[in-house]
Request: fold
Amino acid sequence: MTATLDPRAGSAPLAESANARRLVDLVFRVREFGIVAVLALLVLVTAAIEPRFLDLSNVQFILVDATIFALLALGETMVVLTRNVDLSIGSVLGLSAFLSADLFGHHHGISIVLVFVVGFSIGVACGFVNGFFTVVGRVPSLVVTLAMLYIIRGIDTLVVGGGQVVASSLPNSFIEIPRKTVIGIPILAIVVAAVVGAGAYYLRSFRSGRELYAIGSNPDAARLAGIPSGRRVFTAFAISGGIAGIAGVLYAARYGTIDSTAGSGYELQVIAAVVVGGVAIFGGSGSAVGAAFGALLLNTILSALYVLGVSPFWNQAIAGALLLGAIALDRGISLQLAAALRKRRTHLGA
Amino acid sequence: MAPDRIRSLLRWEVGLSIALAAVIVFGITASSQFPTSFNLFYLNLSIGEVAIMTLPMTLLIVTGEIDLSVASTLGMSSALVGYLFSHGWSMPLVIATVLAVGAVAGWFNGFLVTRIGLPSLAVTIGTLTLYRGIAVVILGPNTISTFPARYTNAGVTPLPHTGGYLSYSVGIFLVLAVVFGIVLHATPFGRSLFAMGANDEAARYAGIRVKRTKLILFVVSGLVCSLAGILYTFRLSTAVQDNGIGLELSVVTIVLLGGVSIFGGRGTIIGVVLAIAVFAGLQNALLLTNFEQRAMGVVTGALLLLSVLIPNVTAFMERGRDFLRRRELGVARGERAREAAS
Reply:
């Protein structure tokens, strides 16, 4: 995909760059195929050993859990594409989950839409702070969002105090959101799939979406090419924050019980999902659909381990190993790809 | 150029000294408990392991790398101490094994970074999860606290002949700080770290073995963090899987607060030592004022942000004005365009 930025677009190199683009496209499509294949294999093997795995309720369970991660992965993808990272999403989710759920306790009969708006606004506000310090402060986003991870979690702790929101204080219509299904498929999963699809379409086909790839491929070149890098990166952080805010409201509806630790550690799982889904950690390539599949794959793996009776104590070690494996694989593929492109060019040139 | 840089570094350390004085004044006014030897010893205990871990982190950040897995390495080492000891190993053997495992953990980070060519940030986020996960696998929900008093006493009693002020952990830190200070500031090896932090490529062309040096630093980081893990276990006389969770933030914060540039190529051990005193003093003073301990993250995070923003505060303000003005201009332009269209 980065090859579309190839500046040498003369008449003869056109065919060459089209070839190169086909090759690049193929590799990325294969990359998403790869995840789906692994997912299918995992499901088949697990179901063969333990048929209970494919019970309708278990599948629904996995899908609903994965939707929250797939949503977060969409926001994180936008940030990672620009060669930045947002480590604060777990804390933003926690703060939004508590504050929005707390609204039900204080304002009886408050509209659910309004609660989602509040959650979204909290997230966007956090995203603004991240974006501002990253873009204007020129501080690496890693440092900014690491600091924000702890600041927002600290604020959350102060707000929550020792208390928690329990499911009984939430209205039924709210709790029911993740449980509603159409022909057995959770509505939430359908909505999130549509949102991810829309996000992927935006990134793929809109000018400002493409510019995120350009910024991640080469920040300096992007700026020289007249792309408003600062504003794009700022927007990416705002979107990532906003999505984390909405995910927080969904978390509240899903789990019902929210204390000050809600969502802690989610940032690493989401980054793992994004990287497993084929988004380059150095920015500039990857797709939102891949990231969503990455999230689904991680959740399915955890669920499969659980069903197969592997102790949940293994979860974290496996997630870490997967993340490292995905980064290494990503590096391997990009090296191979670069070599293949080079070879093709010299071959055609000769 | 060189005198300029020295001056700017000096300014940072002078600033830290002033901050330290302010923290001490704040502590004394906040509570009469602050200057007592009991409290200062407690302060020692609370910062010892973190202080030790800042030293290899300083060297790594100077070369332009980072190790976010330090607290997980500490946790894994602590879990391993508990596991091996509860399985009847003798303590000296346990300590030797754990140190070796720590070095291997650091080597693994370094291998992925220098030989496979992955960014250290991504690698150590991965091993942060992996090493913590291994700690969870090793211990599960168990707590092991049957360590011999000979070792655990070292965790909670002052070093002899220090008037009851210094803990063993801070004593070890001071010795290590001198060693790391000499290595960083007075040896060719140390100079080469600054060189590769300033420009990796140039350092390589100047004949510095960049990859090998970084690999060594990662191994040292793993080794030192496992030492911190052993001390941590003895201090609490408890091995649980979440020992030291989240401490990587404190370590990175202190190093950046100490004036080490996150982009590499700049920093001093003295600055980091001062930053440790500021950080520990502030935390301790806040605790004495009944500050909500669990919300300490707000303070730590804010310190981290400030320490990276302050060094270029003027440029930051300028860009901030630009950014806001450009946004306003953008809005104005959009309005004009809409008017023109209608």
User: Anything to note?
Assistant: Chain B has a mean pLDDT of 87. The two ends of chain B are 57 Å apart (CA to CA).
